Amino acid sequence: MSRGAYSLGELLKQSDSTTALLSRAREQCILRDRVAAELEPDLRTHLIAALDKEQVLVLYVDSPAWASRMRFVTRILRAKLTKAGMCFDKIKVRVQLQSLPQQAPNKTPKRGLSNANAAVIRQLADCIDDQSLGGALRRLASHGQ
Predict the structure, then answer these.
(1) Which of 2, 35, 93, 141 is most exposed by smallest CB count within 10 Å?
(2) Which alpha helices (DSSP H) does the chain contain, by range?
(3) How many domains would you assign to the chain?
(4) What is the pLDDT of residues 101-120, one digit of tens each?
(5) Residue 8 is assigned to a structural domain of this protein
(6) Which structural domain, as residue segments, surrounds residue 91?
(7) Cα first-last separation, the chain
(8) Is residue 100 part of a domain?
């Protein structure tokens, strides 16, 4: 006897742990948005996530440089958040580096000389009196695309 097809959404809604996980994710998004609203626009764009861990606000930013900038404004941010009704004992700033796209293992980056650079090297070779140096430059220029 066939049960029938269920959508992924229906299956996720049936699980208590999944429901709790989705609820927690929504809460974190709301917290992140509320914290971002209190930040300067340049800092706001680098805020990745905000977590409430036992009255400690943990902010994740995308680079060490922005983490340093964020640490400078934590006192002001904490005061603004308290005024907005969100009280935290402490604010910590962490770096969450974005993963870089993986390059295919067998693909090597293309190395070559552009046509424009090859033309410049040829012109230079024509202006040099030293024959051996001029010849070496002409050979190098021949590797242009």
Answers:
(1) 2
(2) 8-14, 16-37, 41-44, 64-72, 74-83, 115-127, 131-141
(3) 2
(4) 666 666 666 677 888 888 88
(5) no
(6) 13-95
(7) 65
(8) no
